């Protein structure tokens, strides 16, 4: 196995375990201090149960809300315009050894693709109309290799579980803050301390969101790896897809690279901010942008606030995986 893939897997495992252990340790310590060690597990389990129920409801019915937001319509093989997407998705699913998801076309004005689903809605993959206009079939397959990688690796479920940690800390902090304001607390009658700890936990819950974003970036990188490893030519075609999406949504990105040596085109793919596509995308520009990204040194903070790795990082990882 490629060394880069091994490092990525190790980072994902360590980061996920670290978020859980650090979060639960902090929650248990704070709850034990104010309510006693005996009652701490019951308090934490009670809050987690509430959060899990909310997350499950969101997960179960979320696909229907997504379809409404994105004006997504299911595609069948008999569709005269988009029916060819169904065997394409089936082929990618076969490469990945998973059941083929339902295929949807999303009528929104920006190039995107995303995988979603639930036990009652089934597995789904959606492709927006602008993406179909700027990518060829091989590039679409590479994007689908990324998306079906999310389904294969159960990323939605994993990230929902990790997302419970900042939510748990937030609700504990919120409860302590209000208890302090109302002068509560059986073990510690210092309402001021309770209020301060509550406010501090609210801040800490916000900081934990950055850890969740970090884990999400690792999962996105791993989905890129999945495309490179399962789709013939996936690494090269995913590079081209990323470049085409960036050029279509940010036509001046190459000019910024040419003028300053490095532009701000660190655009991430999949669920980025909606942007109207502009102009034509030439193969010469695509290759030039990819070559810029291959050698660009990306500062550590470039994607700190993003749930996707900076695009040059993705291009450079894919470059190391061009073995198919």
Automatic annotation (TrEMBL):
<feature type="binding site">
    <location>
        <position position="220"/>
    </location>
    <ligand>
        <name>Zn(2+)</name>
    </ligand>
</feature>
<feature type="binding site">
    <location>
        <position position="150"/>
    </location>
    <ligand>
        <name>Zn(2+)</name>
    </ligand>
</feature>
<dbReference type="GO" id="GO:0008270">
    <property type="term" value="F:zinc ion binding"/>
</dbReference>
<comment type="similarity">
    <text>Belongs to the peptidase M48B family.</text>
</comment>
<keyword id="KW-0812">Transmembrane</keyword>
<keyword id="KW-0479">Metal-binding</keyword>
<keyword id="KW-0645">Protease</keyword>
<feature type="active site">
    <location>
        <position position="147"/>
    </location>
</feature>
<feature type="domain" description="Peptidase M48">
    <location>
        <begin position="83"/>
        <end position="321"/>
    </location>
</feature>
<dbReference type="InterPro" id="IPR022919">
    <property type="entry name" value="Pept_M48_protease_HtpX"/>
</dbReference>
<keyword id="KW-0378">Hydrolase</keyword>
<feature type="binding site">
    <location>
        <position position="146"/>
    </location>
    <ligand>
        <name>Zn(2+)</name>
    </ligand>
</feature>
<feature type="transmembrane region" description="Helical">
    <location>
        <begin position="12"/>
        <end position="35"/>
    </location>
</feature>
<feature type="transmembrane region" description="Helical">
    <location>
        <begin position="158"/>
        <end position="181"/>
    </location>
</feature>
<keyword id="KW-0482">Metalloprotease</keyword>
<dbReference type="GO" id="GO:0004222">
    <property type="term" value="F:metalloendopeptidase activity"/>
</dbReference>
<dbReference type="GO" id="GO:0006508">
    <property type="term" value="P:proteolysis"/>
</dbReference>
<keyword id="KW-1003">Cell membrane</keyword>
<feature type="transmembrane region" description="Helical">
    <location>
        <begin position="193"/>
        <end position="215"/>
    </location>
</feature>
<protein>
    <recommendedName>
        <fullName>Protease HtpX homolog</fullName>
        <ecNumber>3.4.24.-</ecNumber>
    </recommendedName>
</protein>
<keyword id="KW-0346">Stress response</keyword>
<dbReference type="InterPro" id="IPR001915">
    <property type="entry name" value="Peptidase_M48"/>
</dbReference>
<feature type="transmembrane region" description="Helical">
    <location>
        <begin position="41"/>
        <end position="61"/>
    </location>
</feature>
<keyword id="KW-0862">Zinc</keyword>
<dbReference type="Pfam" id="PF01435">
    <property type="entry name" value="Peptidase_M48"/>
</dbReference>
<dbReference type="InterPro" id="IPR050083">
    <property type="entry name" value="HtpX_protease"/>
</dbReference>
<keyword id="KW-0472">Membrane</keyword>
<dbReference type="GO" id="GO:0005886">
    <property type="term" value="C:plasma membrane"/>
</dbReference>
<keyword id="KW-1133">Transmembrane helix</keyword>
């Amino acid at each position: 196995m490629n060394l880069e893939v091994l490092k990525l897997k190790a980072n994902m495992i360590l980061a996920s375990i670290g978020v859980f252990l650090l979060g639960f340790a902090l929650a248990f310590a704070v709850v034990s201090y104010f309510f006693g060690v005996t009652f701490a597990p019951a308090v934490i389990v009670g809050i987690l149960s509430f959060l899990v129920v909310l997350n499950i409801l969101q997960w179960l019915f979320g696909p229907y809300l997504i379809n409404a937001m994105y004006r997504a319509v299911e595609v069948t093989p008999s569709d005269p315009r988009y029916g060819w997407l169904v065997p394409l998705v089936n082929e990618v699913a076969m490469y990945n050894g998973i059941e083929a998801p339902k295929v949807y076309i999303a009528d929104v004005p920006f190039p995107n693709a995303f995988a979603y689903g639930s036990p009652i809605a089934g597995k789904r993959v959606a492709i927006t109309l602008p993406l179909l206009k700027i990518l060829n079939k091989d590039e679409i397959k590479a994007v689908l290799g990324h998306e079906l990688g999310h389904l294969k690796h159960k990323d939605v479920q994993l990230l929902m579980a990790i997302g419970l940690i900042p939510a748990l800390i937030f609700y504990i902090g919120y409860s302590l803050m209000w208890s302090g304001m109302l002068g509560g607390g059986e073990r510690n009658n210092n309402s001021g301390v309770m209020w301060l700890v509550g406010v501090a936990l609210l801040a800490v819950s916000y900081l934990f969101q950055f850890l969740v974003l970090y884990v999400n970036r690792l999962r996105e990188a791993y989905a890129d790896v999945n495309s490179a490893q399962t789709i013939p030519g996936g690494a090269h075609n995913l590079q081209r897809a990323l470049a085409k999406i960036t050029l279509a949504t940010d036509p001046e990105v190459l000019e910024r690279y040419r003028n300053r040596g490095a532009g701000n085109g660190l655009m991430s793919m999949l669920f980025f901010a909606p942007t109207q596509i502009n102009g034509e995308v030439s193969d010469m520009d695509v290759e030039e942008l990819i070559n810029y990204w291959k050698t660009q040194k990306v500062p550590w903070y470039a994607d700190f606030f993003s749930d996707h790795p900076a695009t040059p990082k993705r291009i450079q990882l894919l470059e190391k995986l061009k073995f198919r």
